[in-house]
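For this section, I looked closely at a protein sequence along with its fold in token form, which I now present.
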Amino acid sequence: ELSKVLDRATQENMKDLLRGIKFVLNTQDLELKIKPYVMKDGTVVINAWCDSDYAGDKDSRKSVTGFLVFINGALVSWKSRLQKTVGLSSAECEYYAMTEVAQELLYIKQVLEFLKVEMQLPMTVYCDNRGAIYMANNASTARTKHIDVRYHFIRDLEGIIEFKYTKTADNLADPYTKNLPNEQFKRLTGLYFRSTKEEGNEEYSDVGVNDVKGRRKGVGESTQDRGTRKYKDVHGESKTGSETQGVPQKPKDG
């Protein structure tokens, strides 16, 4: 966004720049958590999450596509880019996003086949728009016949890619398309990022197995809830507040 106004920057753009610098400084300790799980039969499981906003670009009214691809729970591919076509509805924009992630999955599939790596099919793509999923699984109607044929190829991927619905609150690609509240942003990105300043992030490993709901215990918990659970695991009893975070309490007088 900032690159679009290099020759006509305003005070508002300067605020956006400072906001971006602040974000970089506050997240410089984050790193990807690459800890794939291993299937008993030795096969590879590929899952993806995709999302789109609606007419987010104020100048062109185009939308933003965002997607994440996991192999055995490890994040291997991600993208956030302006779509090439203006969508007439939110479902249509999500449909474009599903097409883009399908192209990425087909490429990854070809690479794995070249390396003679066995994978489980169909690969699963999670989307938070039921209308887009319906469009992907059914023939064109009067409301969708205007969509370019380059996007309709996903209808021929039966048995290779399966599209499933997920709640917006559980869509891991949501931070790649729009600004989110701080807590929701940290909850979603915390599933595949970890801070080098923190210890004990083992609960962030099984992302992408089947669904966000199937995550191992601890994923999606608040910081305080995780601290309470860990204290229980170690001490066999529950305490709350800063004690569960490992912060010593100030001694009382006397």
